[in-house]
Design goal:
Elements lengths: L12 H8 L9 E4 L7 E2 L26 E13 L2 E12 L2 H7 L1 E6 L4 E12 L2 E4 L7 E6 L6 E2 L3 E6 L8 E10 L9 E5 L6 E11 L5 E5 L6 E4 L3 E9 L19 E5 L4 H8 L11 H13 L3 H15 L1 E2 L1 E2 L11 H7 L1 E2 L1 H14 L3 E7 L19 E8 L2 E5 L20 E4 L8 E2 L10 E8 L8 E10 L1 H12 L2 H15 L4 E2 L4 E5 L4 E10 L1 H5 L7 E4 L19 E2 L5 E9 L14 E2 L3 E9 L4 E9 L3 E2 L4 H13 L2 E4 L5 H4 L1
Parallel strand pairs: 2-6, 3-13, 9-19, 18-20, 26-33
Antiparallel strand pairs: 1-8, 3-4, 4-11, 5-10, 6-7, 6-11, 8-10, 12-17, 13-16, 14-17, 15-16, 21-22, 21-24, 22-23, 24-25, 26-27, 27-30, 28-30, 29-30, 31-38, 32-37, 33-36, 34-35, 35-36
Length: about 675
């Protein structure tokens, strides 16, 4: 369940490429025409900007050119101005074949109208050494696209698009634009990151930052030893990085969040997370007045529950279950939460709003609570990056009771458990918004001592000829899996879920029919959810296509979630994601013979994943239990070969086929 946050994530290589050069693709999004005052301007270049001649591409990398575009220049220049930043962005590329026309004959970029004013300085085509200017005849279409509107997420960003007339193969497209950015908060803070090599050839990457000398910048080098050239004029200091014809970097999938494939540089105007916290601290006061009716509900919780742990859970459920999630992250709403009074009155809020409301509620109940910044997808990287407000896209709540720390995501819905079995959000790290000694803190995971999903299939083969096979499936979910299933049961219709399950079994056993609706049971305090399904398979379908003689018992323990990367030139570790511990048991009854498991049924035990299969049998019953558990979150690059070999062995041992039509009596 993705939830958008309020802070814009740091620019990535891919995002930068898409922002600079994008073919307009019609996708399933909500679009609106641009509002008044949000047009892209045309204007001349500022005198602070350095212009450089277009470089030559190194022909040794021609074979690695993608989509008919040869990148020539990426020039990014930043300087501080009163109340924010001025940014110059230039990009030039050559169209080398017909494919490149589709990609390179249009320019598209996104911007936030609440904080940015964009001026395009030129759009040129260079053909046989002759410069053909197109800025004057360029017509920009500016529109708003909300990709996640169906999830209740609105960011207000605009897309500007222009189609360049008369672009031909062999042309060089060269354009530059200047953005005046006035941040809503943190106007004196700078964070910028860039890659010094891309996954495709580029002749020159150039990054230039001009900043007040009295505020020295901090740098972090990632997989590179590149240092800037530095020039000082007294009041300002200019830092310049240049990377000429860098060797393209092979892109890799399944990367850990804290691993950077591309050699890159991070720049920050501060080395202290406290500076980031101080920027947002005034907006997260926890002594704000709560609406009378809402406050009375908290007082009722206090009267009913003496233990702070119980008060915490009841307040969590009050906010999670009764305040719906809607993110209006536009303008001030991108950074500044609405007051608890406004949130309660409207009945909705985003992560900022709900976290502030929950933390304020817990304070009223006498519980130490603070809001904390984190990131949904890149939270594990927060421990390594330089301090920046742009590192976060989500806010949660930190609670401390008798030296024990709890982390709560107020945007969750119908979360189960009490204090002793509450599942913390799996975000890696978080930064509590506190007045003193702010520091990044690790969000510890709960150790999995039992399977979080247990599928129990019972196949009752017919005792008499002509009777159907019966199948009963009981799936028990615990912990995070119970939370997910509980949400699924209320967000989807029971009929839709039952239909999906029936399709799953029909793929394995054609002709399977449901005997009734799903039977569900939810013990929210224990955080246990169970779902029971009942099916039958007619005698004719059981006999068709030798199904009974080639009957498959197949485990569903999450093997499909384990990544299988391409080993070719792999240099990065792979990320196994959140911990998995699952169990699947098949019991086959009313058999007419004695069956056993395979002789070569070896366990798969590695430092990263463990897989076991256990079987028992009697003269009329056969049972197999499969277990899968991830041990470590990452597989080092040097161990990926053995890991992939273990995956093949796991897959080979995850399904067993039997001739359950076999009878000892008939054989004798």
């Amino acid at each position: 369940m993705g939830r958008a946050g309020h802070f814009q994530a740091a620019t990535t290589v891919v995002a930068r490429l898409l922002a600079r050069l994008t073919v307009l693709i019609v996708i399933c999004t909500v679009c609106w025409p641009a509002m008044a005052g949000t047009n892209v301007h045309k204007g001349s270049l500022g005198n602070w900007i350095e212009q450089v001649a277009l470089p030559m591409a190194d022909p040794q990398f021609d074979s690695q050119i993608k989509n008919g575009i040869s990148n020539l220049l990426s020039d990014f220049q930043i300087r501080k101005r009163p109340g924010g930043l001025e940014i110059f962005d230039r990009y030039a590329y050559k169209i080398v074949d017909r494919t490149g026309l589709e990609r390179g004959a249009a320019i598209s970029f996104e911007f936030d109208p609440a904080t940015s004013e964009v001026t395009v300085n030129w759009i040129d085509i260079i053909r046989d050494g002759v410069v053909i200017k197109h800025l004057s005849d360029a017509e920009f279409d500016v529109f708003r696209r909300e990709r996640d509107a169906e999830k209740g997420l609105f960011d207000g960003w605009l897309t500007a698009y222009v189609n360049i007339n008369d672009v031909r193969v062999g042309d060089i497209v060269d354009y530059g634009k200047t953005t005046v950015r006035t941040p809503i908060i943190g106007t004196d803070l700078l964070f910028h990151s860039f890659a010094v090599a891309w996954d495709e050839p580029i002749a020159l990457i150039r990054e230039r930052v001009t900043w007040p000398t009295v505020q020295p910048l901090n740098f972090r080098q990632v997989r590179t030893d590149m240092r800037p050239g530095v020039e000082s004029t007294g009041e300002t200091t200019t830092y310049l990085w240049q990377s000429a014809n860098p060797t393209p970097v092979k892109s890799q999938e399944y990367l850990p969040p804290d691993f950077r494939t591309y050699p890159s540089i991070e720049i920050s105007s501060t080395s202290k997370w406290q500076d980031i916290v101080d920027t947002v601290l005034p907006y997260y006061r926890l002594d704000q007045e709560l609406p009378a009716e809402f406050a009375s509900k908290l007082d009722a919780i206090a009267a009913k529950y003496n233990a702070p742990e119980d008060r915490m859970i009841e307040a969590m459920r009050l906010v999670q279950d009764n305040i719906r999630y809607v993110s209006l992250s536009m303008g001030r709403g991108s950074y500044i939460p609405r007051s608890p009074t406004t949130v309660v009155a409207s009945g909705f809020g985003d992560c900022k709003d709900k976290a502030l409301l929950l933390a304020s509620s817990l304070r009223r109940l006498g519980i130490q609570a603070d809001v904390a910044l984190t990131d949904l997808d890149e939270g594990l990287a927060l421990a390594t990056i330089l301090p920046t407000i742009r590192a976060f896209d989500h806010i949660i709540v930190k609670v401390v009771i008798d030296s024990q720390t709890f982390w709560i995501d107020a945007t969750n819905y119908l979360q189960g458990g009490r204090a002793d079995n509450l599942v913390p959000p799996d975000y890696g790290f978080a930064l509590p918004i506190v007045a003193d000694n702010a520091a990044m803190e690790k969000i510890d995971r709960n150790e999995l001592y039992q399977p979080t999903t247990f599928v129990n299939e019972v196949f009752d083969f017919p005792k008499r000829k002509g009777e159907p096979l019966k199948l009963t499936v009981t799936t028990t979910y615990w912990g995070a899996d119970a939370d997910s299933m509980r949400y699924k049961l209320v967000s989807q219709s029971a009929a839709k879920i039952a239909d999906d399950y029936l399709k799953y079994y029909n793929r394995q056993y054609p002709g399977m029919k449901s005997l009734g609706p799903l039977v569900t049971n939810d013990s929210r305090d224990k955080n246990l959810v169970s779902v029971t399904e009942s099916y039958d398979l007619s005698a004719d379908d059981l006999d068709a296509d030798n199904l009974a003689k080639e009957f498959a018992l197949k485990s569903d323990v999450g093997i499909r979630y384990l990544p299988e990367p391409d080993l070719l030139e792999r240099s990065a570790p792979i990320w196994l994601g959140s911990p998995i511990f699952r169990r699947h048991r098949c019991t086959v009854r009313n058999l007419k013979a004695h069956f056993v498991g395979p002789e070569d049924n070896d366990d798969v035990i590695t430092p990263y994943v463990a897989f076991k299969a256990r079987w028992t049998s009697t003269s009329t019953e056969f049972q197999v239990d499969w277990f899968l558990k991830t041990i470590n979150g990452q597989v080092p690059a040097k161990s990926i070969g053995p890991y992939l070999k273990s995956l093949r062995k796991i897959n080979d041992n995850s399904a067993w086929n039997y001739n359950f039509a076999y009878s000892d009596a008939e054989a004798n």
